[in-house]
């Protein structure tokens, strides 16, 4: 089993999509309501394709960075695997709302990156065409999010920039069903995914996967 298989990335996005609704669902819904002269589904697709594009670009950048470090240090890949396992467990606690384990990472992202990127909002508002909806989605794809950062950690192990982009594409496709759900259905889905028992069940999947990554890493360390 590949620790960073595309299927695993897809499942990660699917399992964590309840968090996506909380973080970005309001933006997507308000965007559809504001674009009265455009098809709601077209606006939603354009916005989400923009968001996915940003994820892929980020995946390419991080994968390129990881590959360059791996060439210089043979222990880098092993360290990343251990870090990925720990980060996955932190994500589990975050999703289950047992602790704000990734709050500091999101705060760093907000301070170092988001406060500068959000200034470009003015170029896409009002969203009166699909190009602006796509650009707005690309902009919000850089919103500080612990779930996205956790997926990006995986791309450090990617074999190439294209592989890194593929991992983030698979992750984004996992989040897509929830993000494309609109109106009353979105409210029902959000309530379901954010129910205490559901969050604990979904979070436990991340816990299991985190320990799996740590077992794989420590096994290679021993041998």
Question: Keywords for this structure?
Answer:
223 residues, 78% helix, UreH-like_TM_dom, Cytochrome biogenesis protein, transmembrane, transmembrane helix, membrane
Describe it.
The structure is a single chain. The protein has 10 helices and no strands. By secondary structure, it is mainly alpha-helical. Helix 2 (17-34) crosses helix 3 (40-72), helix 2 (17-34) packs across helix 8 and helix 3 (40-72) crosses helix 7 (146-155). The model has no long low-confidence stretch (mean pLDDT 81).
Q: Can you lay out the helices and strands and say which pair or pack?
A:
Blueprint: H1 6-15, H2 17-34, H3 40-72, H4 76-95, H5 103-117, H6 130-140, H7 146-155, H8 161-180, H9 183-193, H10 196-222
Helix pairs in contact: 1-8, 2-3, 2-8, 2-9, 3-6, 3-7, 3-8, 4-7, 4-10, 7-8
Count of helices? 10
Q: What would you call the shape?
A: globular
Give the end-to-end Cα distance, rounded to a whole number of Å.
18 Å
Name the helicity range.
over 70%
Structural category is mainly alpha
Uncertain segments are: none
- SSE topology string: HHHHHHHHHH
Q: What is the count of structural domains?
A: 1
Q: For the residues shown, what is the average pLDDT?
A: 81
Major sheet attributes? none
Overall radius of gyration: 18 Å
How many strands? 0
Strand content: under 5%
Organism: Pseudoalteromonas phenolica
Keywords: Membrane, Transmembrane, Transmembrane helix
Protein name: Cytochrome biogenesis protein
């Amino acid at each position: 089993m590949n620790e960073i298989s595309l299927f695993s990335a897809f499942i990660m996005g699917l399992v964590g999509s309840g968090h996506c609704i909380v973080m970005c669902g309001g933006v997507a819904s308000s965007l559809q309501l504001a674009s009265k002269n455009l098809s709601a589904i077209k606006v939603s697709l354009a916005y989400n394709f923009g968001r996915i594009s940003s994820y892929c670009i980020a995946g390419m950048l991080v994968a390129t960075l990881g590959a360059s470090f791996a060439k210089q240090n043979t222990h880098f890949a092993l360290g990343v695997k251990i870090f990925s396992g720990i980060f996955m467990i932190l994500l589990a606690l975050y999703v289950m709302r047992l602790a704000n384990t990734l709050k500091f990472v999101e705060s760093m992202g907000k301070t170092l990156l988001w406060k500068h990127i959000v200034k470009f909002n003015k170029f896409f508002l009002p969203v009166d065409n699909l190009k602006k909806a796509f650009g707005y989605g690309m902009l919000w794809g850089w919103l500080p999010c612990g779930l996205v950062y956790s997926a990006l950690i995986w791309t450090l192990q990617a074999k190439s920039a294209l592989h890194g982009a593929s991992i983030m594409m698979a992750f984004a496709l996992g989040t897509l069903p929830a993000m494309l759900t609109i109106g009353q259905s979105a409210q029902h889905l959000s309530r379901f995914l954010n129910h205490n028992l559901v969050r604990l069940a979904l979070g436990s999947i991340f816990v299991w996967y985190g320990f799996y990554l740590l077992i794989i890493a420590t096994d290679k360390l021993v041998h």
